[in-house]
Amino acid sequence: MIDIEELLKNEIPKHMLKRASVTLRAKLKPIRLLIEHRRVPEKGWDDDVIEFFLTLLSWMDTDKDPEGAQVGEREARVASQLVYNLAHGFCHGVGRSGNLTAPQPKAVGSSLAYLLTNRLALDMLQRCGAPNLNSTCVLPLATGMAIGLSVSVARSESKKHVVIYPRVDHKSPLKGMQLAGMNVKTVEPEVDGDAVRTSMKKVRKAIDAKTAAIVSTTTFFPPREPDDVKAIAKLAAEEGIFHIINNAYGVQSRQIMKLIQGAIDAGRVDLIIQSTDKNFLTPVGGTILASPSPRLIEKVSQAYAGRGSAAPIIQFLAALLSLGLDGYERLRNEQEINRQMLEEHVKRVADKHGERLLDVFNPIAVAMTLNQHEAKKVGHYMYTLRVTGPRVLEETDFGICCRRYHSPYITVNAAIGSTKEDIQSATSALEKALRHTRKYA
Amino acid sequence: MIDIEELLKNEIPKHMLKRASVTLRAKLKPIRLLIEHRRVPEKGWDDDVIEFFLTLLSWMDTDKDPEGAQVGEREARVASQLVYNLAHGFCHGVGRSGNLTAPQPKAVGSSLAYLLTNRLALDMLQRCGAPNLNSTCVLPLATGMAIGLSVSVARSESKKHVVIYPRVDHKSPLKGMQLAGMNVKTVEPEVDGDAVRTSMKKVRKAIDAKTAAIVSTTTFFPPREPDDVKAIAKLAAEEGIFHIINNAYGVQSRQIMKLIQGAIDAGRVDLIIQSTDKNFLTPVGGTILASPSPRLIEKVSQAYAGRGSAAPIIQFLAALLSLGLDGYERLRNEQEINRQMLEEHVKRVADKHGERLLDVFNPIAVAMTLNQHEAKKVGHYMYTLRVTGPRVLEETDFGICCRRYHSPYITVNAAIGSTKEDIQSATSALEKALRHTRKYA
Amino acid sequence: MIDIEELLKNEIPKHMLKRASVTLRAKLKPIRLLIEHRRVPEKGWDDDVIEFFLTLLSWMDTDKDPEGAQVGEREARVASQLVYNLAHGFCHGVGRSGNLTAPQPKAVGSSLAYLLTNRLALDMLQRCGAPNLNSTCVLPLATGMAIGLSVSVARSESKKHVVIYPRVDHKSPLKGMQLAGMNVKTVEPEVDGDAVRTSMKKVRKAIDAKTAAIVSTTTFFPPREPDDVKAIAKLAAEEGIFHIINNAYGVQSRQIMKLIQGAIDAGRVDLIIQSTDKNFLTPVGGTILASPSPRLIEKVSQAYAGRGSAAPIIQFLAALLSLGLDGYERLRNEQEINRQMLEEHVKRVADKHGERLLDVFNPIAVAMTLNQHEAKKVGHYMYTLRVTGPRVLEETDFGICCRRYHSPYITVNAAIGSTKEDIQSATSALEKALRHTRKYA
Amino acid sequence: MIDIEELLKNEIPKHMLKRASVTLRAKLKPIRLLIEHRRVPEKGWDDDVIEFFLTLLSWMDTDKDPEGAQVGEREARVASQLVYNLAHGFCHGVGRSGNLTAPQPKAVGSSLAYLLTNRLALDMLQRCGAPNLNSTCVLPLATGMAIGLSVSVARSESKKHVVIYPRVDHKSPLKGMQLAGMNVKTVEPEVDGDAVRTSMKKVRKAIDAKTAAIVSTTTFFPPREPDDVKAIAKLAAEEGIFHIINNAYGVQSRQIMKLIQGAIDAGRVDLIIQSTDKNFLTPVGGTILASPSPRLIEKVSQAYAGRGSAAPIIQFLAALLSLGLDGYERLRNEQEINRQMLEEHVKRVADKHGERLLDVFNPIAVAMTLNQHEAKKVGHYMYTLRVTGPRVLEETDFGICCRRYHSPYITVNAAIGSTKEDIQSATSALEKALRHTRKYA
Fold first, then answer.
1. Minimal Cα distance from D385: which residue of A?
2. Active-site residue among B14, B19, B37, B74?
3. Sign of the torsion angle spanned by Cα atoms C393, C396, C400, C406
4. Residue A203 has pLDDT above 80, yes or no
5. Does this complex have an ipTM over 0.90?
6. Helix C254-266 to helix C229-239 angle, to the nearest 10 degrees?
7. pLDDT for A8
8. Cβ–Cβ gap C19/B81 under 8 Å
9. Which residues does A318 contact at the CB level (< 8 Å), separation at least 6?
């Protein structure tokens, strides 16, 4: 680039020059190291360094060329400086007609940013507990659409149209599968004690000659428990069908990542979907698609139709660089502590108000019965108290993931990025809510 | 909001107070008018006013609540200030699980921005030549994916799986249709003089009992001509099949918008797809889906799986406000002048170098034969001369949209936002390229 | 710095790599040229390039050192990111205790920015019409304070305390001289026809053994005419006294810069003061102090007490880079055209309403009598019509620069940066005002 | 302003509307409270709220009026958007010709920002320990220039030209006094044990009929101790002379603010000067001038010549709002803890290396002898180790504030804003330096 220190020569005393050079080099050092190692940095970067790096990258796209002539129908022209800023200069988007991850001749900087993002995403997932992954692609789509893309690959590879889906009451994945033209065969979970759990027996039974894939799920609200992805992986291997894991917000949890790792080792896992926002504190809009198989990632990348906004990619890249590995591990530690604290707080509230914690495995959220209270009112009350995120469900509501649950309940999360204060305020709001919503005897 | 002028009372002489108030109100006036009329402003806004407005909207989302407690798994938390800025504070994305355009309780500001964007998009398209449109939805997806969503609605409404597609050699639309699980029956265009043109006879013949939809195209590189969307609309009406128009960059052209208007009036047009970036100078990543039928827009919105990045929406909103109606009409006028100039320039170059203009209808681009030159080398030469956008094709290349074309050729665009200088540089580069690539006799 | 293109190797096809490199280098080229030539660029820079350059410079200051330990009482610590941004990272200010332009060991980047600014300022003034200048220093002070500093140097060099000041009714210069502990001997101008003009005879007469300096003025509102700086320069040379020219907004005018050049060639000119904001479209707060004598600039720099805000320096640097020489000449051309237009418009209005233009030399402003109208009301009326800048004065008001002027009058400016529209609106407002303020017969 | 919530009506469900409104109001609440109370907020504001507030204020200046016509010679025109941003839109500067704090008719927003800044500055100093202050003015000048302005008022009020200055080896204050045309009579401090201390006897003796003022000092490097400002205040009262206190970085220290309060109560204190950057973590360039007498603040404001950059004012305003009272008290607590820690660390190092702490009162810095080491080399060594701020002085260096000191020494600061890490790194670097610079026996 530019040897700006040259400017100093003869103008500034030599020892000062040297000192300035030391500082400038120290600021630029993280960029240099990233280029050399292409791994998530241990220590997160300052925002100004990230911005500088993004600027350099974006200045490699042809729309920045002051001497270029642009006579295509799509040349990343923008209506105003603000519009440019809203994209931080990445105006070409990502992807080409034929392949989402192919480099764009007009947008080498964007391509490079994307390539790097995909490398760092893989590095991050490997270091977060799944070293047996081999390829990732960050999609400019949220998880539901990403599931759609994934099953479409299963369809085109298998020439079959049925997906087996252990029931999770979340519309997006279902819509993604339907968008891809698949028929979804839902497998009803069973209630075992407090847990709502997928029956492996039923899953096995659901498979037939038309089955293209199973879509399993690791993260959902309690009392729905994570699927036994290891057992499903074995089954998928035996039956020769695709296995796609919706690991929506599982990267934050070491326990869940261990399940993923185990599943890959034990059987067949084709594609794993995770949200950028729920795991890595980015704005909504991106998915990290991962796989032990680079070929499959390539297939999905080729199935994507056209280009996409660069925003989810760049936001995720910035988030990774900002957090660094240390920052992310710190957040995961806090999450574990907060999850523990949440359980204790909710238990205390439950004990006091004649309710009880549901006894369910879930490393992120906690659920409590609402037998003695008017469930819906609890929810409204908390919304009014400016608590966002808790869900209140009654026995047959959409969301219970089974035909009928034994009690109404409320779930509260201690997800990554939540603070101690969030949890304290929420549980004290919960207590307030319970005090005002007790059923008459 | 805040009556900041109160602060002035007793502190500043009264006549100054009055003057300051006049200025402040004048700055805020565009926002006030937008709220009242919900139409694209005649005069474009200054960037600082747009930014201010976006800030106000984003401050209505719950993640901004300084006194809120956030205990959901997705709460629009962000890794750093930079990540926040990259989304201009719209961190919740757009959409809900069930419906892309449904308001999000946690993100009323984002919802409002989206709602407004959709209103303005409709207003804009109506004023750009298609007053018979009745609903629009700006999708956080580029056009190929949007075509996928559209045909998926055709499929679920018709329960049929075949799309008839008058051939256009562009991978994204095809991939979009395949992603949606459709079988695509391509109709081969015919070469008529210089024009590569869809044969209505062949289209009619292709329709059968399995046909869900026809996907027609208005904008592509010459010599491929726009489809006769009016005739196709009549045919679709007769046959009771969906008609989806890929109007990728047609909004910029008054002629093409007249075709759209005519098609809607004459027959059946269900959904019309247009790019935000190619028509409205936004970064890549958004589509304006339009329809005479609000019900169908609603259907597509419900078919979308989950949430999406708010970036393409906000970028498009900012672009519309920045341009204003006047600004857009000015750009369209320039485009027409530039298109005329391009034709004259290219004709002159062709005459001089033993080539000729292809005689094809196309309001945006121009094509010229390359019979006397080494076609591929012309392309490389221009790339080296920093000209982006021209395409060089030989007789059987992907891109010619027919089995075999009579000559190799080069296409150059005078698309909206191109400048006179772009066109002059490009044509003088073309001339230079021709001088160096003449075939030996 | 960083060889970011290295990252591309093996990742991106070679011809793309080359193209990206061409673009990146083209973006950085202006910086490279500036470093080599240290002259105002012909063509103005884009804002993003200026910002990038400022970032690089600011990253050379020790407060940016991620590995530094800061244990001084002043270490450019900032309260928040916003505070940092408000200074664009130049938090150390400019100057050292002993010398405003001495490099700061802790702030080499700031020092470098300052050094460069001073170089470019000299280059600009030379090319703007005064090639016989030899040194400049941009002060973080407006012109009144700069005059104070300048006369303080005259005092300390001459050991005398009296300044002769051909009367200009502007408080700042007077206050500046008083602040420096000088006694100001005002020389009353004479009214000659319409012009209010300094009498050289009176100036000569005012000089005595206590005289340290004359402060002359080139730019003020008509009917006060510019001082004959050439004659004063000759006189100062003869008498061996300092001559300081307040050339507040004279750089914009080729005619006035010619006067400056002539004065330097003909006699003694020690220091020349010009506003950064009035000449170069920066925010208020800076002065370009210029001199044929580097020694004197050094003296003023040493007389300045301590450090100062870097903001006026950086703003001026950014303005110069943004305008470029071409941009500035374009603005000066427009100013000349607008000045001509203003005269024509005001003349037409005057003719129509029984007033007349004052016949006075002034390359920036125009004045018109207000004999037939209620002068003060004209001023208020125009303020209400949102016209800022015109001044209305009656026969003995402060501002007329003489004991009594023959008529009330209004002045209007066509200063650099004003637009045609400004002048048209202002003159049409003037006409409206006159219609409503005519005196009764 | 704008009732943006109106837009929501009929578009968004009512309960969502209510929730959005709650969030928006919570974001704007700090602004509302500031307007009502005009006091430093207890809790610091988020940067985005400060920015929003600054935008609103700046939008009251006439240069923002989209319908205004600007025909003055100074209209806050700017060369580019970047130049505008560098001033955050406050392009008119602060001040008028006649009075720094007078409201500007063209710049009511800037005036208001300035007025508010002065109010908050007074509130802050009162709450920081000097409730007996009655007026403040934040000057767009660093402290040396502010001292110049202050003594110029003493001169014009007293008609005398001599300032008595208990010696402090800092060039800026001296230069400020000289700039104002004063003769400075320096009073040599005495060495008492380790302390370098002003002798009240000598000060008293220095006063004579020509004395306009005493300038005392509270903060400097040890072994120079703070002046006994109470005794000086009494003396000034007795003698009827001005007393100006240079309290450069004393606001951070509760002990020193107590001295100030005591001096005001006990005798005569006219003006007190404090740095914005050293006390409130702003970029260099501002001074808080304070006084028990509003009349005197007004006088200084009138003595200032013209306008000044708004940057130091806006930066200080932003810093105050960002810190809040709580934030500032937290920083002061940390400073006290760090100061204690620094002493302990340096003592340990001294003990180990045959040096000793100087026994001097100083609430911010610590000094240690360098008898066994090569003093100058210690300084260079630490600079190389990237430690900024320590000063090494030998027996007769400028900086010792007396004729000859008994030992060479090094001073290190634990100033406000320094971190624990700074102090640990610096003391460990000190140890390293000592190891390498021991004198040979």
1. A19
2. B74
3. positive
4. yes
5. yes
6. 20
7. 64
8. no
9. A50, A54, A282, B79, B80, B82, B83, B86
